[in-house]
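Each record in this resource describes a single protein on a pair of labelled lines. An example record follows, reproduced without changes.
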Amino acid sequence: MAEQIEQDKVDFERQRNQLMQLSSQKQQLQFQSRVLKDALEEISKTKEEKVYKAVGNIMILSPVTEVKKDLEKEVEALDLRVKTVQKQEDITVDKMNKLKNKIEGKNKETKEDKEED
């Protein structure tokens, strides 16, 4: 029984590490999405017909409508990835809660067994 408790504790730690990684990834994606939304807002304000767009290491002049469409697609993709990571976070938290309850239940059983002796 003690071995199973230890294994559950290891699994819990693994899930906790995964949750921290997912949270970090989600924050990065949200930040990228916010930056793109800000760029989209600025492009919407411009009266220019063409703007510079970074392509690799160079800047090229592109129509505002094309750049705006590209940014909207990127924002949509990032927001979808954020939702996916959020679902993964929720699943991980659920697994952690189940493991926590399992560990606490086994610890309680172990204490009760020791008290009976």
